[in-house]
Amino acid sequence: MALRSPDAVHGGSDQPEPADLAIGSFTSDAPWVVEPDQMVWRAAEPVVRWSVARELPELVRPRRLPSPGRLSRVVGRLAFTVAPWALGARRRGGTISRADLSRRLRVAAEHLGPTYIKLAQIISSGEGLFPEELVNEFKKCRDRVPAEPFHKVREVVEGDLGQPLEAVFSSFDRQPLAAASIAQVHAATLITGEEVVVKVQRPTVERLVREDLRVMAWLAPFLVGRIPIAALANPPALVELFGETITEELDFRLEAANMLDVARIFAELGQRNYVIPRPHPQLVTPRVLVMERIHGFAFDDVAGMVDAGVDTAEVVRTGMIGFMEGAMLYGVFHGDLHGGNLLVLPDGRVALLDFGITARFSPLKQQAFLRMVVGATMNDLRIQIEALRDLGALPPDTDTDAVIAELGLDRPPVDPTTLTPDEMVGEIQQVVKGLMGLGARLPKELMLYIKNMVFLDGAIATLAPDLDLFAEIARISEYMAERHGERIAASIGMEPTNVDFDFSGIKASFGVDPNSTSSLTYRDLQKRRKLISDRLAGRKLL
Q: Which domain holds residue 443?
C-alpha cells in the first residue's frame, strides 16, 4: 500500500516546504515554524507528568473519606437516580431495565457537572465495551455541556497569559466553536495575523475533578455487583482507569507535548496522510492552549468529501494504518478518536485534533502489545493470552491453558446467528463469568486502543460500507509486514520467516465460519449484528 507522494500531499506547489516538516507531520501552510527547543512551555513537561502519576494513587485510593459536602451531593443524586429504577424497571429486566437505568444515569451526570459528564463522554465512545443502552444514552452528553460565560473565559486567558486579551489577540470569538466538559475552544486571530484556536479550561474544573475522583473512589467498592456497568470495567477499576485518563487532561502543557510527539512519530514513519496542528511556541499554559487552526470537512460529511474528489475508503485506511503504526512501533497514539476530533482536508489528508487523551505504553507493555497483534495475525492463542497477561489485562500468575479451557477457546468457533436467543445468552454469560473468575480487567492503554478500533469500525460504515473487511485486514497486514516486519519481529524476539499469516482467528472473531467465508463487507456485518441484537433484545445478560 503506497503512501501519497510529497507532490500529491502538497499539491505540487513550488513553494518551499516549512522547515518543521522534517520533524513533524504538520500542515504545509505554517503559521509559525516548530522548533521544539524554543518552545518555552516544554521544560515543565517531565515534572508535570511525574506529578500527575505520583498524585493519582492517592486520588483513587478506596475508602478514603472525601469532602462531606461533595459526597452528600453525589450520593443524594445517585440515590434519587437509582431508587426509581430499582423499584420499577429493574424488575422487568433486559433492555427495558438497562435503558431506564442508562437514562437516569445520564441525567445524574448532567446534574453533577464536568467530571461526571466527562466520564459519560468516555463511556459513550466505548461501543462494544459497555452496554449499548448506556453508550447510546451517554452520547447525548457530548453536546449538552453549557459554555462558560465569556467574562470567565477572559479571566482564565488573561490570568494564565499574564496580559490583557487584546494584547495577544486582534479578534477573539465570544461564542465557542465547541464546549466540552473540561474546556471549550474559541476561534481567534493573533495580533500578528495568524488564525488560531484557543482551548480554555473551565475555571473550577481542576478542583472539581479532584473532589469527584475521591468521591468516586470511595463509592465504587459499594457498587460492585449492584449496578450492571460493564463486565471488564467493574466500578473500582473503572474509577482507576478514568482517573488515569482525566488527570492528564488538566494541564494543557501535556496536551501540547503530545501533539509534538505524535507529529514527530508520523514524520519518522513517513506517514504524511495525517497532519497535526502546531501548538504555539509561547502561548501554552496549564489552562490555555493556543494552536494553529485547520479547516476541513467534518468526518461524517461524506457528500462534501465525495464532491471534492476525496477517496473516502483511503481516509479509512489512513486512520487504520497511522493509528496502528504509532501504537505498535512507538507505543504512543491518540487515545480519543471520534468524529469531533478529526477533520478531512480537501486533499484527503486527515487532521487529528484534541490530544488531551493520549495513550503511552511502557516499553514492556509495548512489547506485549506487539506480541498480541502478531499473535492475532498468526491465530496463536497462547501468544495472545500471554501478551494480554503482560499488558495487565490478566493477573501475572495466569495459567494460559486454564484461560483457554475456561473460555472454551479450544472449541471450534460458533456462528452466533445460528444460535437461539437462549443459547446466545448462555454463551455470553459463560464468557463473562469466566473472565471475572480469572480476574480480568481492562488496562487504560488497551481500553483506549479498543475504543479507537470501535470508532474506526464505525467509520467504515460511514465512509466505505462496501469495503471487504477481510481483504482490507490482509492488505494492512501485508503493508505492515513489508514496511516494518523486521523491526516488529526483532522487537518481540521472533524471526520474520516464522511469522505466518493465519486470519482464521480474526474471521472467527466476526462470528463467521473461517473456512467457508472468504469476504465480508461492513454492510453484511451490520446485518449480522442487527440480527444478533434483535435476538438478544429483552434478554437478561448479566
A: 363-536
